[in-house]
């Protein structure tokens, strides 16, 4: 699709018609001066008028009354009064016609006050060949071109014509009496068009002249004071040029394989618009029906003015009021759309039309800044369409590859590849189907062409009865129509099927996009889960270390307690059995003994042993304190067990979480009853975090308890043992061996307390 410079696509030219007899009779004064072929000046040239009057009277003109109210304008071209029809066609209309043949939409609009020469410019006078207007000249040009072009190429041009009018806001077909109150429709491919407007295939310029004449007879005209044969409606003559071209692709063709056949269709539409003239009712003297017509004409022209004002608004208005009138709606493509448009504004040179001419010039000047964007209306052949799809697929594959490179998980990459492969297979299947459809479509087209040729042949060759051509018989016409309708329907069905195929390929593309999005989402979820698992692993590791440290210190405490307990039992035994047994047990044996007692619970039964004498009391009191210590340690041991159970529980959860992660990495996340959702996994992680926090709190509490135990031993037990030692020392009267043992026991117990304090201090520091 080629695009042209937008400024080139909307041109405005001015044509000044020569003064009419009526104007010459009424003291004609020329108010328009053409400065060059692009600029003109309009002024209420009182000087000239004064001069003429002065000449009549034989007086000198007044110098101060030379010119006033003068305005200069520049346009794409200015045609003065002497401009011939052929000049106007060659300089202005021919480009538009050639654009149509190149596949563009082109419009020529004749605008101006009533009686300024719009119809003359567009249609001209058929009586004089020199006065032929744009429509007949364009027609000849088109047929000349077609003849020349179709001789050179394997081209099959087809020309069709339609003729419509907008009269009192009602669109009617000027070539078909049934076609009234027609509706304007719009389609993406076709643009704006009139529904049910008949299109006539024309093969010679004469065919077009016949249609023009037929339309002119129906077109609403009337006599007004300013124009004897005034057009009371806006008329649009439409010429459509369709060309199909089949040619061998050469190596210079973009994205095509050399040697392939390429077919393309170009459809250009030429709108030749002859607007009804605006008029000031005061001057035209319209009444009754004429007055109503004038109002409607002025109203739709004012809508045209509004559309042009909106299109050229420097603020860049969003809403363009095309729908305010049938005229503007019909010209939507021509004004600011896909079209090469030329506006021809006609003016009268007479002083009496000064204000109308000035307003026409201002209107035309404003329209100069309209920007159109014209494109060739070209349909690619089906192979080209396939290549276009292939290109899109290739692009899609590249994008997918680019995205895949970013995915960290190799497994996901493999799955992506697999999905991509499946999508490609689907596309390939779609393309194969489309190719088949295209082949069928081409076959249909060939058949259609063959039938058309046969019809033409029959039209030319067959004659029935007394010189009456067969094509003129109703039976033949009926058959012809049936056949034409059948082929047309088949052609349309094939087109519709192709469109469906195209849509299905579009859907496939969208599906691939959805896959891509899903995979990217899964990748993100996977990364998030891995992050959370790592966090949890770190937490568990920290907890494990803490527990190990705790176990170690507990073990130290237990060992210290075992040693002291063994020493105490040994002292007790010594005090009962006498000094002879003092040296019979080694410290290692004592510790082993105490350890055995501790583990079997025999120590507990010792707690209940009754004191044998009053002197033993302090010793047994200390034993009970140490027993307390022992049972606290026992509790701590149990708590440690509980901690271990919780830790194992957490490990179990961790294992489950890893399994969940494995599921996520294996396939798309589709929540079901058996698979925990991401939210539930996150909840488990959170609850375990809370458990870890609880465990930490318990450790802290236990530490506090131990601190309290240490304080008790330090502040209560130690002074107590000191008091016992001092009292015992003071009460010893003789130097018997029992007293010595008792003293030793007391000293041993004091050391035991000190050792316990020391052990607890080490634990507290390391914690
Ligand atoms: N360039 C010209 N050379 C000679 N005669 C012209 C020229 N332009 C217009 N005329 C004559 O002026 C008269 C009015 O012209 P025409 O009917 O084309 O005007 P119009 O703008 O179409 O008017 P309306 O809007 O009322 O239909 C006609 O008689 C026509 O022959």
From TrEMBL:
CDD domains: KISc. InterPro entries: Kinesin-like_fam, Kinesin_motor_CS, Kinesin_motor_dom, Kinesin_motor_dom_sf, P-loop_NTPase. ATP binds at residues 112-119. It comes from the Eukaryota. Pfam families: Kinesin. GO terms for cellular component: microtubule. This is Kinesin-like protein. It comes from Acrasis kona.
């Amino acid at each position: 699709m080629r695009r042209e410079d937008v400024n080139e696509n909307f041109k405005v030219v001015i044509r000044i018609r020569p003064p009419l007899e009526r104007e010459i009779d009424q003291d004609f004064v020329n108010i328009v001066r053409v400065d060059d072929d692009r600029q003109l000046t309009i002024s209420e040239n009182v000087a000239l008028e004064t001069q003429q009057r002065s000449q009549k009277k034989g007086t000198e003109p007044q110098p101060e009354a030379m010119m006033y109210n003068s305005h200069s304008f520049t346009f794409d071209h200015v045609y003065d009064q002497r401009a011939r029809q052929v000049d106007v066609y060659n300089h202005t209309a021919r480009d538009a016609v050639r654009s149509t043949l190149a596949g563009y939409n082109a419009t020529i609009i004749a605008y101006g006050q009533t009686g300024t020469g719009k119809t003359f410019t567009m249609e001209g006078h058929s009586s004089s060949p020199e006065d032929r207007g744009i429509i007949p000249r364009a027609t000849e040009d088109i047929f000349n071109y077609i003849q020349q072009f179709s001789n050179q190429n394997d081209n099959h041009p087809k020309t069709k014509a339609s003729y419509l009018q907008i009269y009192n806001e009602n669109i009617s077909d000027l070539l078909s009496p049934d076609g009234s109150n027609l509706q304007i429709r719009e389609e993406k491919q076709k643009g704006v068009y009139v529904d049910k407007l008949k299109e006539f295939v024309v093969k010679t310029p004469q065919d077009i002249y016949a249609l023009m004449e037929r339309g002119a007879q129906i077109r609403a005209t009337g006599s007004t004071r300013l124009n004897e044969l005034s057009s009371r409606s806006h008329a649009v003559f439409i010429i459509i040029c369709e060309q199909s071209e089949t040619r061998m692709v050469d190596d210079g063709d973009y994205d095509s394989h050399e040697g392939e056949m390429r077919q393309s269709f170009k459809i250009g539409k030429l709108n030749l618009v002859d607007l009804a003239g605006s008029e000031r009712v005061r001057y035209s003297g319209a009444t009754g029906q004429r007055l109503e017509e004038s109002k409607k004409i002025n109203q739709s022209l004012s809508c045209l003015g509004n559309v042009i004002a909106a299109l050229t608004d420097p603020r860049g208005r969003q809403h363009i009021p095309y729908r305010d009138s049938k005229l503007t709606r019909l010209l939507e493509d021509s004004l600011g759309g896909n079209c090469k448009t030329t506006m021809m504004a006609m003016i009268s040179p007479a002083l009496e039309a000064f204000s109308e001419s000035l307003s026409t010039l201002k209107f035309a000047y404003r329209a100069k800044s309209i920007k159109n964007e014209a494109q060739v209306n070209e349909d690619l052949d089906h192979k080209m369409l396939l290549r276009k799809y292939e290109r899109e697929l290739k692009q899609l594959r590249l994008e997918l590859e680019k995205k895949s490179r970013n995915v960290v998980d190799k497994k996901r990459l493999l799955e992506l590849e697999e999905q991509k492969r499946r999508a490609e297979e689907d596309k390939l299947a779609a393309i194969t189907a489309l190719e088949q459809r295209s082949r069928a479509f081409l076959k249909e087209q060939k058949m259609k062409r063959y039938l058309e040729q046969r019809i033409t042949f029959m039209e030319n060759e067959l004659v029935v009865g007394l010189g009456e051509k067969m094509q003129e018989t109703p039976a033949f016409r009926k058959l012809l129509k049936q056949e034409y309708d059948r082929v047309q329907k088949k052609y349309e069905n094939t087109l519709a099927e192709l469109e469906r195929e195209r849509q299905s390929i579009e859907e496939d593309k969208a599906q691939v996009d959805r896959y891509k999005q899903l995979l990217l989402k899964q990748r993100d979820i996977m990364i998030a889960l891995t992050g959370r698992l790592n966090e949890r692993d770190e937490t568990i590791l920290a907890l494990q270390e803490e527990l190990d440290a705790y176990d170690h210190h507990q073990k130290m405490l237990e060992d210290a307690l075992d040693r002291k307990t063994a020493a105490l039992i040994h002292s007790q035994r010594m005090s009962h059995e006498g000094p002879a047994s003092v040296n019979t047990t080694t410290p290692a044996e004592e510790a082993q003994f105490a350890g055995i007692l501790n583990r079997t619970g025999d120590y507990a039964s010792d707690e209940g042993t009754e004191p044998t004498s009053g002197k033993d009391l302090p010793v047994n009191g200390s034993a009970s304190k140490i027993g307390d210590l022992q049972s606290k340690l026992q509790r701590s041991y149990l708590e440690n067990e509980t901690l271990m159970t919780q830790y194992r529980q957490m490990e179990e959860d961790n294992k489950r979480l890893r399994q969940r992660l494995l599921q996520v990495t294996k396939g798309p996340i589709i929540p079901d009853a058996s698979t925990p959702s991401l939210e539930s996994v996150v909840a488990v992680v959170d609850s375990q975090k809370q458990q870890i926090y609880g465990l930490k709190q318990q450790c802290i509490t236990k530490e506090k308890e131990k601190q309290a135990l240490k304080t008790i031993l330090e502040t209560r037990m130690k002074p107590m043992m000191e008091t016992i030692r001092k009292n015992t020392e003071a009460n010893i009267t003789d130097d018997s061996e029992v007293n010595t043992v008792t003293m030793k026991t007391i000293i041993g117990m004091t050391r035991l307390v000190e050792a316990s304090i020391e052990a607890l201090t080490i634990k507290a520091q390391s914690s």
